[in-house]
Amino acid sequence: MAEVALRVNPHPGRNGGATPRRTRTVCIADGFLPFSAHPVFRMSPLSANHADALPSAAPLPGDSHTHTFRCRHAGGEVAEYARAARDMGLPFLAATDHIPHPGGGTDGLHMTLAELPGYAAAVLEARDALSYPVLLGLEAEFELARDRDWLTALLSRHPFDLVLGSVHCGDHWRLTPASPEATPAKIRAIWTDYARNVIELARSGAFDVVAHPDLAKRTGLLPPPDLLEETMFPALDAIAEAGAAIEINTSGLVHPAGEPYPSLPLLRRARALGIPVCFGSDAHAPKDVAQFFPAAVALARAAGYSTYAVFSRRVRREIPIPLPA
Ligand code: ZN
Ligand code: FE
Ligand code: FE
Ligand code: ZN
Question: How far, in Å, is the centroid of ligand 3 from the Cα of 2?
Fold first, then answer.
């Protein structure tokens, strides 16, 4: 039986946030879905110097962050996203709709609890119908890890491949650089709060990936370099200690932020700390799958990355970032 050494997110409990990354041996037959036969999932973890030598069938990395109509503010069904990804030659696509919230209803942003089984079925059916690796994921607000039993029970209902953790709340949604309220002191407070929440997210150990890691710049409230370091470097330390990955999310290019999440200085720091990356378009329509991924690949390479993370049943492995054509 084939065995590969995988780097596993230990998902430590609330008190175990500082658990270091570790390596564990997993049997593919035990730990993976049938689509592990797909070439992308057959590659064993690669050292950085092997990565560049490998022929890359895929022109762009897989997309680990997309939303369907179930989010109420997105359009398209899983199979449409998967078909778009397959036609572009992406090695995989992850559906990561917004997680149902404990009340079970919708706020216009999240699917209802009653919709969760249909969502999981849509992913598994697209996977079968297209014979294409469609990963079953969710995007979850970090606050949900405060009720760990609820979150664990929800995630145990279906064979989830990855869970993105997000810090969505905060004044960074409301204020823009033009807001009279956006004083230097307020911008400092926004980044301080945001980074504190990222640290809580990381230490919870409940999530595989920190999505859009510097989302606080969404409306263009870019921090001066010293404020960025003071607030976000400790957040990256917490992510590294927790063994989580971060996402290079290209939706920042269509937001007033005008650049992917995270910025190059943060990505360089993440690389120095050994934090893995994955790529996410945050597409809310099938046409936006892998949007701006060439720019994201260039950013990753500029930061020194040659591999990226892919998840199956909450186990992470790293595969080569495709070379530009
Ligand atoms: Zn959304
Ligand atoms: Fe988000
Ligand atoms: Fe999203
Ligand atoms: Zn998102």
Answer: 35
